[in-house]
C-alpha cells in the first residue's frame, strides 16, 4: 500500500498530551472536511497534477499541495537515511484516516517506535491497537461530515479547537451524545487569537479540561 505524502519532517510535538516529545511527522495529502480556519489548507486537494517525485517532495522549501507516493518501507528507509533521532511517529494531514493506517503504524511499531494519529473523527479510524489516537472533532464544517461514535470511542485524547462560545457548546453536546472513555479533553485556541486563548483558559478551568496551545507556533518551529 502506498501513502500520498505532503511532508515528512522531524520536530517537537506542539499539541496535546505528547507536547514536547521529539516526533517524526508524516503529513498525508487530502481532506474534504473544510474547516474555515484550517492551518494546512494546502493539503486539501489531491490532484494528479500535483504528484512529484519523492526527492522533490523532500526538498520543498514552502507549503505546497505537492505530494509523493511512499510505501511504509520507503518511509522507514527515509527515516533511517535521515538519521532522525525521534522514536515517536505522528501521522497527520490532511485527514489521515481516509486510508488504512495499519501497515504504516505496524511497521514502525515493529521497529520500536510509538505511533500517533491526528484525526478529525469523521472517518473510521483503521490502525493498530497500540496507536495513540488524537481526535479533534470537526462539527458543522463545510464538507458536511458527521463525527463517528466509533472515533469518539477510540479516542485516547480529544482536542477541540475553539474561538467562540458556540464551539464550547458544540463540544459539550458531542460529549453528551457519544460515549467516551476516561479521555483527557483539551481545548486548543484557534490561530493563537487572544480572545480564543482567554476563552479556552476560562473554559478549561471551569470544566477541569486541559489547554493545548500549539507550542510550535509560539517558538517558530515546524
Ligand atoms: C491540520 S489538522 C490535520 C489532522 C486532522 N485533519 C484533524 O483535523 O485533526 C491537525 C490539528 O491542527 C488543528 N488545527 C488546524 N488548524 C488550526 C488552527 N487554525 N488553530 C488551532 N488548531 C488548528 C486541528 O484541529 C488538528 O487538531
Ligand atoms: N510541531 C508540530 N506539532 C503538531 N502537532 C500536530 C500538528 C499537525 O499539524 O497535525 C503539528 C505540527 O504541524 N507541528
Ligand atoms: S479536518 Fe483537519 S485538515 Fe481537514 S480542514 Fe479540518 S483541520 Fe484542516
Ligand atoms: Mg499543524
TrEMBL record:
Substrate binds at residues 12-14, 27, 92. [4Fe-4S] cluster binds at residues 31, 35, 38. Pathway: Purine metabolism; 7-cyano-7-deazaguanine biosynthesis. Binds 1 [4Fe-4S] cluster. The cluster is coordinated with 3 cysteines and an exchangeable S-adenosyl-L-methionine. Keywords: 4Fe-4S, Iron, Iron-sulfur, Lyase, Magnesium, Metal-binding, Queuosine biosynthesis, S-adenosyl-L-methionine. S-adenosyl-L-methionine binds at residues 37-39, 94, 136-138. It catalyses: 6-carboxy-5,6,7,8-tetrahydropterin + H(+) = 7-carboxy-7-carbaguanine + NH4(+). Residues 18-222 form the Radical SAM core domain. Mg(2+) binds at residue 40. Its cofactor is [4Fe-4S] cluster; S-adenosyl-L-methionine; Mg(2+). Its EC number is 4.3.99.3. It comes from the Bacteria. The keyword Iron-sulfur applies. It is an enzyme of class 4 (lyase). PROSITE patterns: RADICAL_SAM. Catalyzes the complex heterocyclic radical-mediated conversion of 6-carboxy-5,6,7,8-tetrahydropterin (CPH4) to 7-carboxy-7-deazaguanine (CDG), a step common to the biosynthetic pathways of all 7-deazapurine-containing compounds. Homodimer. Belongs to the radical SAM superfamily. 7-carboxy-7-deazaguanine synthase family. This is 7-carboxy-7-deazaguanine synthase. The lineage of its organism: Bacteria, Pseudomonadati, Pseudomonadota, Gammaproteobacteria, Alteromonadales. The gene is queE.
